Task: structure prediction
Amino acid sequence: MSDQPPVASRESRAQVRQMLLIGAVASALGIALALLIDWFPVPASGQAGPIDTLWDVLLIASVPIFVLVETIVLYCAIKFRMRPGEELKDGPPIHGNTKLEIIWTAIPAILLVALCTYAYVVLIDIEKAEANAMNVRVVGEQFTWTFYYPSDGGDEIASPQLYLPVDTAINFTVQSKDVIHDFWVPEFRMKIDAVPGIDTHLRVTPTRMGEYPVVCAELCGLGHSTMRQSAHVMSRDDFDARLEELQQQAAGGGEEGGDGGGETDGETLFTDAAQPTACGSCHILAAAGATGTTGPNLDEVVPDMSEEQLRQAIVDPDAEVEEGFAPGLMPRYGDSLSDEQVDALVQYLTEVAGK
Ligand code: CUA
Result:
C-alpha cells in the first residue's frame, strides 16, 4: 500500500453519483410517504394548526437524512462488499480530512439551530395568554378526571365530563390528588402532566364543535387505561345551558359529595364507558357483559354482601378491601356521586349480580 491518498477514479466518481441519485429519489419518496400518512386525529384547536405544520417541517427535514444514510449503507454493503480473493484489497483509511469534518459538523449544527428556533417560536405562539380566557380546573385521581368551572356564586361547579365553549380561549389549571397523571385531548394536540402538589397549566382554544376523548397519558396504575372521559365542544349558548344544568344538579344532589350530576340509571352508570364510574372496565359482571379484572368479580362477591356493605364498597371502597386486591385502586365515589346515583348502582347490582 502506498502513502499517497488514492486518486478518485472516474469509476468511483460515477458510483458516488449513482449512490446520491438513488438517495435523492428515495428521499423524495420517503417525504411523500411521510406526508401522506394521516398521523393525527382531526385538528380541533387553534394550537393544532401550528403544531401540525411543525410536525410536517420536522418530517421534511429528518426523513431525507435517515433515507440518505440508509441508502449509502445499503449501496456500499451491496456494491463494495468483499468478494473471495479480495481480502487484502482494502484501501487506506481516510484520515484528517479537514474539509469533510467542517462540512459534517456545520450542516447538522445549522439544521439543529434552525429547527430548535422554529419549534421555540411555535411554542411561544401556542402558549401565549389570550384576553378573556375562561378558567377550568382539571383534577386527576386514580382513575378519573373531574372538571371544575368557576361560578358567580363562589362555589366551583364540578363536572365528570369536560364541556367547553367553541372559539373561547381556555386556561386549564391541572392538578392531581394522588400520583402523576397526564391530561390529554389528542384533537387539541396539547397535553400536560398532572403532578401531585403543584399546579400545571395548559392553554387551548377549541375551534371545532364535537366530542373528543380526554385521555390519561401517564401510566398511573392498574386502571390507567380506563381513565378516559369526553370533551364536549359546544356553542356558547349550549355551554351556558349545560353549566346551569350542572349547577342545579349540584344544588339539588344531596348534602355530602353530590356533585356528580347527570346519569341516575344504574345500568348506564355501570356499563357506559363515558360515565366517570364505568364500573365494567374494572369488574366482571355477566349481566352487563363486563369482563374487567382490575377489581373483584362482582358476580362472586355481591351476592354475599348486604345492601349496606355494597353501598360502603362504592362510597368508600378502601374501608374494606377484598382479599387479593390493593387498596387505593378504586375511586371514592362518595366524593363524586350523588346519593341517588349510589342508590341506583346498589339497586342495579343487587338485581343482576351472580345471575
Ligand atoms: Cu391517570 Cu394514567
Q: What stands out?
A: DSSP finds eight helices and twelve strands in the chain. Residues 140, 143, 181, 216, 218-220, 224, 227 surround dinuclear copper ion (CB under 6 Å).
